[in-house]
């Protein structure tokens, strides 16, 4: 009987097993089909949404282009009425941005032939419209406001305007039609996928019900227990793995937060220094002009008084000393603001530092041992005078930090900076000039503020707080970077990073002793171009004192007439920054008609002349200047001009 039951149950167990396997296979097939269908629908939907987004972007871009051109034309109207050059530049910037938007619109619609044709026509209309508006701007720029206004009104009725509007409208309409078609396609695809998913889900539900009925057997229950145990094991493993991933992600997130906070702090510091620099640069520029008048007046007074009383001489000497100290302070302010004019040349840093050895020994005294370690094989492109001042400032700071003596080490090395190693210094080759001392060092709190203007740790009367900020401005103006490290009780190291120069290197020459400005050149008719009347009078008086014949000119617009009236002009002395035109631009225009005229630029601020090559190789004299330095500069300019004429002959 038992055998009979066993025999009867064996086919039943086989049938159940086969039924379960078949149900499982069908379930897997249905699930796979459902997953594939859903994935296909998702991809098609995402693709359609992406193209819809693209169409929206094209329409927004077209409307932005229309708005930008309208804004540009409105700005041009204000420019025609006001004649303000700044408004004119705003018009030009807006119209140029419209061109940029047109280029982007061309790129975004390059995949559709019907849009490409419209974009090409739009670009032609944009060019025609730009020519019409440029004529209005050009007339306004040359002061023909009435004609410009008439032309502006005519341009407002030009066919190009309606053509631009029509083309933009057609482009947007085409894109909207494409958008509607894509939307319909996406809706149809999603609807079809939903129907297929519904059918497959229904069939799958039936199969699952059958499998559940078959699974009531003992074998199915035992199998379910085994599967449950397996799933629990897999779940525990997945939880542990996910926990590890979350821990790693949290660690990375914390590191990124620290790095971001550090970068934000450096950005805030750079922005603060930039804001203070702009403020001090503007103040120092105006102060420089006033100092030039003061120094010139004091020198002229001392020269005109043949036998001054001791009290008068003492007062004049005190006034000159105060003016010179104010000039030095102004130079530091301009250097910090990166507005001090640089006259860079290619030079070997080791040669420059070696040439400063005697001056450093004399300045620092016998208690400081100076060690120079030459390790740089690359050259740099910098202003040698500013570099010497920077190194001297660092050396004096190091001396003050070593009250009872110590060692000052100046070392050079070739380095390659990576991204973010030195704030605002791009990746590349640099020469590092490090100045190290064995002094008392600084705390981290003090180290954070050492480049702030007017911040100093010295007692009152022993420092202005502008030394390191001046170095900071000079290094940034030279395209480099600066960093400082310090440990209390172990000294400080300030490292200057200057970009590598691959051009010619200029040999360092010994500085000549300062003369009294007297020259074998006298009676030279000199055209003096200066917009500040006080500085103009002071410069004219100094040239007259040197025996020359100055011809004052307070406006660049008067220069052509003066050149025509005075054919005997032998020298031009020009300011750099003037209303409407810079000195280098004015001299370039003069040299087209009078290339033989020698030129001397006089400036105390070079914020708008960033490229030293703009001076065209002419002599540059820094404000405020003495009569002697003016005479020496004039002699150098005339010597160079005579040498060039002799060589040409």
From TrEMBL:
The modification 4-aspartylphosphate is found at residue 575. It holds the Pfam family CHASE3. Residues 282-502 form the Histidine kinase domain. It catalyses: ATP + protein L-histidine = ADP + protein N-phospho-L-histidine. One of its GO terms (molecular function) is phosphorelay sensor kinase activity. The chain crosses the membrane at residues 196-215. InterPro entries: CHASE3, CheY-like_superfamily, HATPase_C_sf, HATPase_dom, His_kinase_dom, HisK_dim/P_dom, HisK_dim/P_sf, Sig_transdc_His_kin-like_C. Its EC number is 2.7.13.3. Residues 525-638 form the Response regulatory domain. The keyword Ribosomal protein does not apply. Keywords: ATP-binding, Kinase, Membrane, Nucleotide-binding, Phosphoprotein, Transferase, Transmembrane, Transmembrane helix, Two-component regulatory system. This is histidine kinase.
């Amino acid at each position: 009987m038992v055998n009979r039951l066993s025999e009867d149950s064996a086919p039943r167990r086989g049938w159940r097993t086969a039924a379960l396997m078949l149900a499982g296979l069908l379930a897997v097939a249905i699930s796979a089909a459902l997953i594939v269908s859903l994935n296909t629908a998702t991809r098609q939907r995402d693709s359609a949404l992406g193209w819809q987004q693209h169409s929206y972007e094209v329409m927004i871009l077209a409307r932005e282009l229309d708005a930008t051109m309208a804004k540009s034309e409105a700005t041009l109207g204000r420019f025609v009425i006001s004649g303000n050059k700044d408004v004119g530049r705003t018009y030009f910037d807006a119209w140029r941005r419209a061109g940029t938007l047109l280029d982007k619109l061309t790129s975004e619609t390059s995949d559709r032939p019907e849009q490409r044709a419209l974009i090409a026509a739009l670009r032609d209309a944009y060019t025609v419209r730009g020519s019409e508006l440029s004529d209005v701007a050009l007339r306004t720029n040359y002061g023909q406001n009435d004609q410009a206004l008439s032309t502006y009104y005519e341009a407002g009725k030009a066919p190009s305007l309606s053509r631009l509007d029509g083309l933009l409208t057609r482009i947007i309409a085409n894109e909207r039609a494409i958008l509607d078609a894509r939307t319909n396609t996406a809706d149809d695809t999603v609807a079809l996928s939903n129907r297929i998913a519904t059918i497959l889900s229904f069939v799958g539900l039936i199969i699952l019900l059958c499998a559940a009925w078959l699974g009531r057997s003992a074998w199915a229950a035992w199998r379910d227990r085994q599967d449950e145990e397996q799933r629990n094991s897999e779940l525990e493993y997945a939880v542990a793995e996910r926990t590890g991933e979350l821990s790693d992600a949290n660690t990375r997130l914390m590191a990124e937060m620290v790095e971001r906070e550090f970068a934000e702090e450096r950005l805030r510091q750079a922005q603060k220094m930039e804001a203070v620099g702009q403020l001090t640069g503007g103040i120092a520029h105006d102060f420089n002009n006033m100092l030039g008048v003061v120094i010139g007046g004091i020198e002229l007074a001392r020269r005109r008084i043949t036998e001054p009383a001791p009290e008068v001489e003492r007062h004049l000497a005190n006034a000159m000393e105060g003016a010179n100290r104010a000039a030095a302070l102004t130079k530091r302010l301009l250097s910090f603001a990166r507005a001090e004019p640089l006259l860079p040349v290619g030079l070997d840093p080791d040669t420059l530092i070696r040439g400063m050895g005697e001056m450093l020994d004399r300045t620092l005294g016998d208690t400081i041992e100076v060690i120079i370690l030459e390790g740089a094989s690359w050259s740099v492109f910098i202003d040698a005078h500013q570099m010497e001042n920077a190194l001297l400032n660092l050396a004096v700071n190091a001396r003050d930090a070593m009250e009872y003596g110590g060692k000052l080490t100046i070392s050079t090395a070739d380095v390659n900076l990576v991204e973010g190693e030195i704030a605002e210094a791009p990746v590349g080759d640099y020469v590092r000039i490090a100045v190290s001392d064995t002094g008392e060092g600084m705390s981290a709190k003090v180290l954070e503020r050492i480049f702030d203007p007017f911040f100093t740790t010295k007692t009152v009367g022993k420092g202005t707080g502008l030394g390191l900020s001046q170095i900071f401005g000079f290094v940034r103006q030279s395209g480099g970077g600066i960093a400082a490290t310090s440990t209390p009780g172990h000294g400080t190291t300030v490292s200057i990073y200057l970009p590598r120069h691959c051009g010619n290197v200029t040999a360092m020459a010994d500085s000549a002793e300062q003369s009294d400005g007297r020259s074998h050149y006298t009676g030279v008719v000199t055209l003096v171009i200066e917009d500040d009347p006080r500085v103009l009078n002071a410069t004219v008086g100094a040239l007259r004192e040197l025996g020359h014949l100055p011809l004052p000119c307070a406006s660049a617009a008067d220069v052509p007439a003066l050149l025509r009236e005075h054919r005997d002009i032998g020298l031009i002395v020009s300011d750099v920054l003037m209303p409407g035109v810079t000195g280098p631009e004015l001299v370039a225009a003069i040299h087209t008609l009078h290339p033989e005229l020698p030129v001397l630029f006089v400036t105390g601020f070079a914020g708008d002349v960033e490229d030293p090559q703009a001076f065209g190789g002419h002599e540059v004299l820094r404000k405020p200047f003495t009569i002697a330095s003016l005479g020496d500069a004039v002699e150098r300019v005339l010597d160079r001009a005579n040498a060039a004429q002799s060589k040409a002959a």
